[in-house]
Amino acid sequence: MNAQRLTGLIAATYTPLGADGQLRLQQVPQMVEHLLGSGVSGLYVCGSTGEGMSLTSEERRKTAEAYVHATDGRVPVIIQVGHNSVAEARQLAAHAQEIGADAVSATCPSYFKIQTAELLVDCMREIAGGAPDLPFYYYHIPALTGSAIDILRFMTLGAQQIPNLFGLKYTDTKLHEFQQCLQLENQRFDVVWGCDEMLLGALASGSTGAIGSTYNIAAPLYLQIIEAFEAGDWVEARALQNQAIEMINAIGTFPFHSAMKAILGMLGYDFGTCRLPQRALSADETIRLRQLLEKVGFFEGIVTR
Question: Which residues cross the membrane (predicted)?
Answer without folding.
Answer: none
